[in-house]
Amino acid sequence: MSTFSGLNTAYRGLSAAKAGLDVSGQNIANARTEGYTRQRLTTSAIGGPAMAGKFSLGVRPGGGVNIDGIARLGDVHLDARVRAAAGVSGFSAARATAFSGLESALNEPGDKGISTQLDKFWASWQDVANAPGEAAQGGVLLQQAGALAKQLSTTYSEFDNQWSQLRGEVRDLTAELNSAATQLADLNGRIRSATASGSSVNELLDQRSLLTTTIAAIAGGTVRDAGDGTIDVYIGGNALVTGTTARSVNVIGSNTMAGSDTNPVTLEWSHRPGTAISLDGGELGGAVSMLAPAAAGGPIAKAAESLNAFAQKLADAVNTVHRTGAIADGSTGHDFFAFTAGKPLAQGLTIVPTGIADIAAAKPGNGGLDGSIADAISQLGEGAGSPDTFWSNFVVELGVTTRSENRQADLSNLATTAAVGKQLANASVDIDEENVSLLMYQHAYQGAARVMTAVDEMLDVLINRTGLVGR
Amino acid sequence: MISRVTQQTSMLAAQRNLQSSAAQLAKLQDQAMTRKAFSRASEDPSGAADAMRIRSQQRSNDQYSRNIDNGLGWVTTIDSTLTEINDAMKRVRDLTVQGANDGALSPTAKEAIAVELDSLKEQLLGLANTQYLGRSVFAGNSSDGVAFNPDYSFTGAAGSTVERRIGTDTTVRVDGDGAAAFGVGANSVFALIDTIATELRGGTNIGARLGDIDQRMNALRTEHSAVGSRHALIMRAEETVMDKTGSLEAQRAAVEDIELSRIILDLKSQEISYQAALGVTARVLQPTLMDFLR
What we know:
- The complex is a heterodimer.
- Chain A is an alpha+beta fold.
- Chain A is built from eleven helices and eleven strands.
- Chain A is rod-shaped.
- Chain B is mainly alpha-helical.
- Chain B has helices at residues 7-34, 45-100, 107-128, 178-182, 189-202, 210-256, 260-285; strands at residues 131-132, 135-136, 163-165, 171-173.
- The mean pLDDT of chain B is 89.
- Chains A and B meet through α2, α3, α9, α10 and α11 of A and α1, α2 and β3 of B.
């Protein structure tokens, strides 16, 4: 037992208390830092020296406290749950947003939608039936038909714009994913070397955890621990990051909705072109699934196709009856609607007649002022197979799908909130707790200082006041 | 299990709760301002389908009402024209009876009757060509501008009638059947009057023509009663359409509109709960241990 061992024990206590204060300071400083995980000083007691000598007797007190390290109080399982939830919620949020966009482009139900224009269109045919040959009623009909065609075309353009916008988002998300993968690979390397040199990697781990959550939200990635301090990240079953190697993802496929039928938008590995990545989660997965061609169930392309089908149905229904009617010069077989070649049907719908003389309102042989054909056309909106029913079914179907997508997004959002709440409850800094720690370490410091003073006084007595007898 | 509560978790929870409370408030405000229960199909898909169907029915119903107004114009025109025609025909019959008494009539008196008959024929021809909004009401769908040409030929096509749609499956005829009422060509009422005038001037007794005149008057009366019954039909349809306008509006309001008193109540209580949430959050988030340590 050395004379100064007491001083050393006290010194160790002092430095441990000071380290504890520093850790609490770091925690408080980062109380609002995103992704920060609270840290704790871990210490252990140093045992007394072993009694090896033959004549050593008695027990010895321990040698003070040892600073073992600074522990990061994260929980990998909670982190994994956050990643899983973020993947699902990113996917459904991307889909729900796109569906809401489609729905709001329709303006239904209300008096600004296509259904209202359609009702007005049929009603103008009634007015023409009431006054065949009158230029005013004919003009109103042609103007109303034009308004209907215009609104159909505008709605189609809005769908097309939404597709292009989402296509741009896919490009941006892919760039974000690739940059996150590169950063993660870099962090892997730094963590590996820092771990090997024995320094603290807590802050690097926090950053890496944030990046994995980002990747999960974008592409639904899963994480596997490689065992040497690095982690591997997998998306769609293939490794995005292994150790310090990051692979990048490319978006290929058409930049327009029209071209996506033959050249669908897909993701592929840049190091292995031609192999598509099928993502089952994440915003990117959701966005790519919305961009699929109509044949593969892509919702935007399908909605646009429904508009085309509606245009075709409307034109066919009106033309079939209109052809049986006679125009002013008595000839029959004239179309009312036509399609511009080379355009989508919904955008290429044009009106053939230019004036009342070209509108076939009369049945041949019934006299020039007959309106029975116009009346027959006005009744095309009624019944089960009518364009109106087709339109209303389309609107309701889109509404039902949007509703269920919204619900899914809400639910997965709740799951994410719960997972993040659990993670934060475990990892976030509590100021009260840190205050208590500060108090404790402060007192521990004061105590250790007192011990040091006591040893100092003892030695003072021993050295300076002992052996003065009789002097 | 009570999970660990930190400033960050309680801050997040407070933020989330305030956010959802504010979102609820915004939705209610939107509903109160538009007074619509939903503005998107996804909020209530079956309601949206109903709303679209009812709106379409409302538009059709409005159109039926317009058609009925137009049809009423036609039949009232025909009705008053036929009344005038009936008066003229009565005069023709009186003159024929007078003229048939040829023993007591001087040639001058006969000539006077013949001249009056001529002018009555012109009046009848004019009445038969009566127009409503530029359309000859007895000419069917003819585009010739008149129902009867000066040679008494009828311009309308057989079987071609003017119809007005007064309901989804119902149309009603609004024109007068000129051929049936007046007769065509040599068999027409105009030719008959010409014949009577000629015979009167020529000295033939016209008493035998009374039967022909009665026949034509019968035909005109038949047409008049047919028009009258169609008039009644249209009036009934007008009432139906008006009833339907009310009931459709009620249906639409039930599906689409929101009850104002209820929404205001909801809005008020949501406002209060939002303010309460704000107050509670402000109180909960303030204190930490630091406030109590020296």
